[in-house]
Structures are given as C-alpha cells and as structure tokens.
Amino acid sequence: ENVAEAMHDVESSLQFDVEVQYCRRFAACELVGWLLQPNPSQRPKHFAAVMNHAFFCSTLKPSAREQISTTKESSIIWHMSPMHRAAAFGDIEFLKTSIQEESSLVFRQTINSTKHVFGKTPLHVAVES
Predict the structure, then answer these.
(1) How many other CB atoms are there within 10 angstroms of residue 89's CB atom?
(2) What angle separates helix 104-111 from helix 92-101, to the nearest 10 degrees?
(3) Sign (positive/negative) of CA torsion 50, 77, 38, 7?
(4) pLDDT, tens digit, 9 for 90 and up, residues 76-115
(5) Which end is more exposed in the chain, N or C (fewer Cβ atoms within 10 Å of the end residue's Cβ)?
C-alpha cells in the first residue's frame, strides 16, 4: 500500500512538468515500485540492474516494442510485459500486430499477464493511463 502511494506521488509530482514525457513518468513510477517491493527478493540485486532500467535510457520512446541500449550493456529493463506498455502508451499498432502475428493462445496469455510491479493486467494499466 505504501509502495502504491509512493508511485502515485512520483506520478503526481511529474504530471504537470511539461519537460517530462509520459513514458518517462511511467518508467519512473515503475522504477520506484521495483525499488520498493515489499519482498526483498523482487528488488534489484545490483546497482547495474537499476541503471539499465528504462527510466535511465536516453532515447526512451512511448513504444511497447523492446528497446535495446546503444551501449555494450544488456537490454533496457522494463518489469512490465510489452502488452502492459502498449496499454499504457496507447500503442494500438502494437496491439493490432500482436493479434495478427501471434497465435490466439499466446495473445490471450499475454493480454491477461500480471507481469507488473503490482500484478496488474494490461487492462488495469490502460484504464489508469
């Protein structure tokens, strides 16, 4: 509950800052939620993992597609599925492509995914966005 309040406070603080893109605010909230997970085993193990989070990516774009770091380090880390990001960013093209390209079983499993800091489905994220 306190973690949810912290994420809400981050979103509220950044909401009216015109310099901060929505996808950067979304990444900031996810990062705070990851850092403050009640279960220590779900928190980052190393500082390098924190620095690879999407929030710190200089080329962050509102896309559900995986974003790869231009450095030699590993991929940019999101803790939500691509479907969650599509819901948050309103990436309709990603959703259409997912429906057309993937088998219906894979799509159904992904659309009901709870791979989110608080176990929310993409529908929950879409409604909140």
Answers:
(1) 19
(2) 140
(3) positive
(4) 788 888 888 888 888 888 777 777 765 666 667 777 777 7
(5) N
